[in-house]
């Protein structure tokens, strides 16, 4: 939660670089969002702009040039949990309630947490599903192919909500990234 405008910075370099220098064989980024409105908080890291990919490249290059460690990126979209306050400002994921807040998007209009007063997200349309799927692809296929080393494989996104799980999948040929399901709309790619 230390990014500004989704941009990874020196905090991320020191955090991930120190783990790699300390001997970890694999270091993982924090949740890295594929869209600006897919963040949990304003401090979440992103990969939705080319400038983000360039900043991540600096970190990946540091790790690869100085250690044998691999670095993985957890790609994500917060869905209904988005637009929350930073955890050290207000613990418990309360929603932002001022001009900084943004509309959240979820598989249904069920709020993230009614105890803290989370507003209901806008239920995704088929077009929204395609857009989010494509944002995951762009986070790896477009930016990843220019800025990192990746494997190839299909893209699949499983969404779990009360009442069941549904999947969005696409078999882009030569799509960089190896994906696995991670809860509500997350995937990870190993570089």
Features:
two-stranded parallel ribbon; 4-stranded mixed sheet; alpha/beta; 191 residues; 8 strands; disordered C terminus
Topology:
Layout: H1 10-21, E1 26-33, E2 45-46, H2 50-66, E3 70-76, E4 105-106, E5 122-123, H3 126-147, E6 155-161, E7 164-170, E8 187-190
Parallel strand pairs: 1-2, 1-3, 4-5
Antiparallel strand pairs: 3-8, 6-7
Number of strands: 8
Order of helices and strands: HEEHEEEHEEE
Helix/sheet category: alpha/beta
Radius of gyration: 17 Å
Question: Globular, elongated, flat, extended or rod-shaped: what is the shape?
Answer: globular
* Low-pLDDT windows of residues: 144-159, 165-191
User: In order across it, which strands form the biggest sheet?
Assistant: 2-1-3-8
Mean pLDDT: 81
Strand content: 15-25%
Structure description:
This protein has 3 helices and 8 strands. It has 191 residues and is of the alpha/beta class. The strands form 3 sheets. The protein has a 4-stranded mixed β-sheet with strand order 2-1-3-8. Strands 4-5 form a two-stranded parallel ribbon. A hairpin with a 2-residue loop joins strand 6 and strand 7. Helix 1 runs parallel beside helix 2 and helix 2 packs across helix 3. 37% of the residues are buried.
């Amino acid at each position: 939660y230390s990014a500004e405008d989704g941009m990874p910075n020196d905090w991320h370099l020191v955090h991930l670089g120190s783990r790699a220098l300390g001997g970890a064989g694999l270091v993982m980024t924090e949740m890295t969002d594929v869209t600006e409105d897919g963040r949990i908080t304003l401090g979440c890291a992103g990969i939705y702009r080319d400038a983000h990919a360039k900043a991540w490249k600096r970190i990946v290059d540091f790790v690869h040039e100085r250690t044998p460690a691999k670095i993985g990126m957890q790609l994500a979209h917060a869905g209904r949990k988005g637009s929350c306050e930073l955890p050290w400002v207000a613990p418990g994921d309360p929603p932002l309630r001022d001009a900084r807040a943004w509309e959240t998007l979820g598989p249904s209009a069920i709020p993230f947490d009614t105890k803290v007063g989370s507003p209901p997200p806008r239920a995704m349309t088929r077009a929204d599903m395609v857009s989010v799927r494509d944002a995951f692809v762009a986070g790896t296929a477009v930016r990843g192919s220019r800025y990192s080393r990746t494997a190839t494989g299909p893209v699949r996104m499983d969404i779990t909500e009360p009442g069941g799980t549904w999947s969005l999948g696409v078999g882009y040929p030569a799509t960089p990234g190896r994906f696995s399901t991670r809860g509500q709309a997350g995937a990870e790619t190993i570089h």
